[in-house]
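Appendix B, Record 12. Input sequence as logged:
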Amino acid sequence: ELTESLAVTRGTRLAGRQLTVLVDEVGERRITGRHAGQAWELDGVVSAPATTGVNRGDMVEVEIAGPLGFDLEGAIRRPPGETA
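Logged structural output:
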């Protein structure tokens, strides 16, 4: 319970920030991936609604909405290949 509480606190602090996420999985409705601060098989993932043109291995900018347990929930703000 303590570990999840700490993860939720950290996720809450990230709300509103844009993070670069490496896409691990692309489903019909959602993508999941990890930002540079998340360790493979140790930390949670970043999850966002799927966007056309996003593929596994892409780097996308995700605006974090907040925590979802150990994971982070967000929305893709900049798909791969799109510049600011």
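The mean pLDDT is 89.
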